[in-house]
Amino acid sequence: MNEREMKRIKAQLQTTETIFVIFLILVIVVIGFVIYSKFHEGTIKEKQREQRAREVIELAHRMSSWPELECSASGAQQFVCLDRIKLNVLSDFINKSRHTDSQAFNYYYDLLGDSQIIVKEVYPSNTQTYKKDYWRLYNNPGSTSHQNIIWVPVNLYNPLSRTYAFGVMEITLYE
Fold this sequence. Notes:
By secondary structure, this protein is an alpha+beta fold. The chain has one domain (42-174). The protein contains three helices and six strands, in the order αββααββββ. The chain has helices at residues 3-64, 84-99, 102-112, and strands spanning 70-73, 76-83, 115-123, 134-139, 147-158, 163-174. Helix 2 (84-99) packs across helix 3 (102-112). The protein is rod-shaped and about 115 Å long. The relative contact order is 0.13.
């Protein structure tokens, strides 16, 4: 072998080594990118969970102070108190408007989105009788099975008998 062939073989070998090193560096960069993206994905999911929890709490706060449901005695509103008669009327209205009046349902859909809102009387009665001590105000589950649930304690006022009961508003927000 002459010197020229030796240089050519040596150059080919160096080129192959360079290509191998570049390939190895690319593999390391890709593996690093995959690991970083998995780590970052977990952070993004955690932020989404926090955002969903914040939305549920905001929805619970809005629902507990709706004028459509608030108790009032002599024009003064009471804190987190829901009128039983207003519960009956509003649940009937929302459920009927879902099938007949799309504008009325769209109004509540804009406020409540894909959620379910149930009010249950816990004390003194707990028979789970619909419209007596159990009301489904809104039910639009959406298309996903992921959900966040929050329970808000409420007072339930019966203006006919002027009595109070303890209840829970269960708000389920679907993703």
